[in-house]
Amino acid sequence: RRPGDKIKINGNSFTSSVKKLFNSRFEKDERDSICFIADDEGPLFIENIGIAGRAAITECTKNIMEILPT
After folding, report:
1. Coil, helix or strand for 59?
2. What is the DSSP string of 5-52?
3. Rounded to an integer, what distance in angstroms lies between the CA atom of residue 61 and that of residue 5?
4. N or C: which end of the chain has fewer CB within 10 A?
């Protein structure tokens, strides 16, 4: 996570601060263990919260990456 990160969760009409999402949904001691995926443009996925609209699967999707827990 980077300071100032924001994410627009697929299906939402608004953008949320990643910091506010983490503070409201996760206890402080569990925040570093939450799966968080980002690219150069910003957050793509936050475990137990959702996927960014820009990364959602659509009829135009050509490739899907599956991430499995170890």
Report:
1. coil
2. -EE-BTT-SS-EEHHHHHHHHS-GGGGGGS-EEEETTEEEEETTTEEB
3. 25
4. C
Tokens of 66: 């599956």
Inter-residue contact 44 to 55 (CB < 8 Å): yes
Contact (Cβ atoms closer than 8 angstroms) between residue 29 and residue 22: no
What's the pLDDT tens digit per position in 44-61?
Answer: 999 999 999 999 999 999
Q: Walk along the chain (70 residues) and give the pLDDT tens digit of each residue.
A: 888 899 999 988 999 999 999 999 999 999 889 989 999 999 999 999 999 999 999 999 999 988 887 7
Between the two ends of the chain, the Cα-to-Cα distance in Å is: 21
On whether the CB atoms of residues 35 and 49 are closer than 8 A, the answer is no
